[in-house]
Design a protein that fits this description.
This protein is mainly alpha-helical. It contains six helices and two strands. Helices cover 44% and strands 7% of the residues. The protein has a two-stranded antiparallel sheet. Strand 1 and strand 2 form a beta hairpin. It is flat, with a radius of gyration of 19 Å.
C-alpha cells in the first residue's frame, strides 16, 4: 500500500500534510471499488486517484478557496447587488458517475477506468436474421 500512498502524494500534493495512517484509512475505503484484475498495471494509479477524489469530496486537502461544494460548482460571483451563478454542466444527476466530475482526481480516475474497463455491447441480430 506504500506505492498507493506515494502515488497519491505525487498526484495530489495538497494531501502531503496528512499522515500516512490517515491516507491509508482513505485508501482502505476506496480499495473495494478498484479491481487489481481489471485495472492491471494502472491499479495503483487508479486507486490513488479515486482515493484523492474521495478525500477532496470530504473537505480534506487545500481548502483555501473553499471546499469542493463551495468552489467547484460556482461559475461566477458578483459583488454589487450580490449575484452568484453555478456551473451545473459538471454535475448531471442522471449520470451515475456525476460526483466523479466534481474533482480533477475523479475525472482522471474516470479516464483511467475508461481505458481499462470495456463496456458490454450486445450487438444482436437485426430483425432476428443472421
Amino acid at each position: 500500500m506504500t506505492a498507493v500512498i506515494n502515488t497519491l502524494k505525487l498526484i495530489a500534493p495538497e494531501f502531503g500534510t496528512m499522515s500516512d495512517d490517515d491516507i491509508q484509512s482513505w485508501v482502505s475505503l476506496a480499495e473495494p471499488f478498484v479491481s487489481k484484475k481489471v485495472f492491471g498495471k494502472m491499479y495503483t494509479q487508479a486507486l490513488a486517484y479515486l482515493t484523492a477524489h474521495m478525500m477532496k469530496m470530504s473537505g480534506n486537502g487545500d481548502t483555501s478557496k473553499g471546499t469542493v461544494g463551495d468552489s467547484m460548482r460556482v461559475a461566477s460571483v458578483s459583488e454589487g447587488n450580490t449575484s452568484m451563478s453555478f456551473n451545473t454542466s459538471l454535475y448531471s444527476p442522471g449520470d451515475v458517475d456525476a460526483e466523479l466530475n466534481l474533482t480533477v482526481y475523479g475525472i482522471r480516475y474516470r479516464r483511467i477506468r475508461s481505458m481499462c474497463v470495456c463496456s458490454i455491447v450486445n450487438v444482436g441480430v437485426a430483425n432476428g436474421r443472421p
